[in-house]
Amino acid sequence: MIKYISIFLAVFSLTLKANAEAFEDTYQIGAGDKLQISVYGEEDLSISELYISNGGRFEYPYLGQLNALNKTPEQLRNEIVKGLKGDYLIDPKVRVSVIGFRSIYVNGEVKKPGGYEYQPGLTVDKAIALAGGFTDRAARGKVYIAKSGSEESKSKVKLSNKVMPGDIIVIEQSFF
């Protein structure tokens, strides 16, 4: 029995790691995210915590101003590698990691409306739980989401829909 449990846990942890890596491959950096930039063997080129502002630009040693907005961590990594390679380092080993995501917002008929830190794998129902759950007056069938960076206004969603950083969830009021 213990053997089966350990096999299950191993498979489960590999699945979580694969999901996190797939998320990071497609995730686009936005204002409010926190990044970590590590350059192997080069402490002066590593940044332990970098907050991305609305402008998306930050100062990087030797390369000057870089823009992180709407780039994947891999795209930003490639830009840093390209800039450092040759003049500064022969073969730079760079890692760009998202260590803190921009907030999601839950408004309307929840017990504690406001902003909450995004976590990978977050769904609408989990976000509502973070906000203390529905109030007694909540219309549970009228849950809307405004996607971050989308031109569209809010659209009706199911509780199982995925939430992305910067999204705004709105729970309407029931009339009965």
Characterise the protein shown here.
There is one protein chain. The chain is of the alpha+beta class. The chain contains three helices and ten strands; from the N terminus they run H-E-E-E-E-H-E-E-E-H-E-E-E. It has helices at 2-26, 73-84, 124-130; strands spanning 34-39, 47-51, 57-60, 64-67, 94-100, 103-108, 114-117, 138-146, 155-156, 168-173. The strands form three sheets. Strands 7-6-10-8-9 form a five-stranded mixed sheet, with helices on one face. Strands 2-1-5 form a three-stranded antiparallel sheet, with helices on one face. A hairpin with a 7-residue loop joins strand 1 and strand 2 (47-51). The longest helix has 25 residues, at 2-26. It starts with a helix and ends with a strand. Residues 104-148 form the Soluble ligand binding domain. Keywords: Signal. This is Capsular biosynthesis protein. Residues 24-98 form the Polysaccharide export protein N-terminal domain. Pfam families: Poly_export, SLBB.
Distinctive features:
alpha+beta; 3-stranded antiparallel beta sheet; 5-stranded mixed beta sheet; elongated; 176 residues; 3 helices
Radius of gyration: 20 Å
Secondary structure tally, helices: 3
Mean residue pLDDT: 86
Helix/strand-derived category reads: alpha+beta
Tally the beta strands.
Answer: 10
Order of helices and strands: HEEEEHEEEHEEE
Low-pLDDT residue intervals, each spanning 5 or more residues: 15-21
Largest sheet: 5 strands, mixed
Task: State the helicity in percent bands.
Answer: 25-40%
Strand order of the largest sheet: 7-6-10-8-9
What overall geometry do the principal axes of the alpha carbons give?
elongated
Strand content: 25-35%
InterPro entries: Poly_export, Poly_export_N, Soluble_ligand-bd
Protein name: Capsular biosynthesis protein
Signal peptide: 1-20
Domain Soluble ligand binding: 104-148
